[in-house]
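hiii, so i know i said id send this last week but things got crazy w the move. better late than never?? heres the sequnce for the chain we talked about at the cafe, plus the structure i predicted for it. fair warning i was half asleep when i ran it
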Amino acid sequence: MFDGPPASELDPGERRARLRLARSPRIGPVTFREAVDHFGSARAACTRLPTVGEKTIAREEAALHGAGGRFLVVGDRLYPASLAALPDAPPVLSAIGNMALLATPVVAIVGAREASLAACRLAGELAAALGASGLTIASGLARGIDAAAHRSALETGTIAVLAGGIDQVYPPRNADLHEAIRRRGLLLAEAPWGTRPIARAFPRRNRIVSGLSLGVVVLEAAAASGSLITAHRAAEQGRDVFVVPGSPLDPRYAGSNALIRDGAILVRDGNDILSVLQRPRTASHPVEKPRKNNPTPEAADVLSALGPVPTAVDELVRRCQVSAATVAEILLALELEGRLERHRGNRVSLI
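okay and structure toks below
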């Protein structure tokens, strides 16, 4: 619960300016960092750039404090150091719950929303085993694997990173879990209070899940899934990627098995994870990142067919005369590179 102003190493005026700059239109995480570096401070940047007013920040802060939460601003002592080191670190996070979890070692568990009962049971067992060893479990509060991991880690510590505002319960079926984590774990959100989750927010959310963590555990990732985005972001961030393997005949494991092929660590139980995390960090197993250079002819065709106007994925398949599976793989690669935005109705556009 909120118990007064957060401990901060920032000058109060600079801290307030960072809140205003971060909440301003067209100021994303990278632009925020560039603006602070260019002008020397957020306070100076606010005198040169159009930013939201103090009343906007005050309204959001009042709502957040009323719910028992607080802002975490880059530069605050409470802000997770592992996130602050990232080039696209969220400048501001809303937080409600047990702030002490921010100082604990974290492992993320992610996977399919429509997961099998066996995978959900294993996710719960892994979360319980890792939690009993002193690790906090992070995930994205989605249904399936995320929910199973969170529930099993409520007693030992769990962090849920939301795609929308911290007050937005999504999916609705996880309302009880959202409330349980608010009371017994920690909720984090990059989006402002009241922001409804939209499709493009989920990949951004995933970078925070992996950025908080020493490593990411993946269960039942299909060939084109959000879990793969989290895994690749983890690899880019220097985190370990752990994967539970599955049958090569089961499409639910196509992405998982591909991660293992590309260098992820095969997991059978919690001991496989703990043994890696206890070794020197220089011995991590990197996962091969998507290749950006020398695109295939198919990728070039799909890229040329895309633009700023949303296009149906089915139309891309017809226009480019490429299989649906290949188009899905190309679109995922573009999304991982931050070049693709997804829209309702299975439509996509270039950013």
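btw The longest strand covers residues 92-97. thought thatd interest u
miss u guys!!
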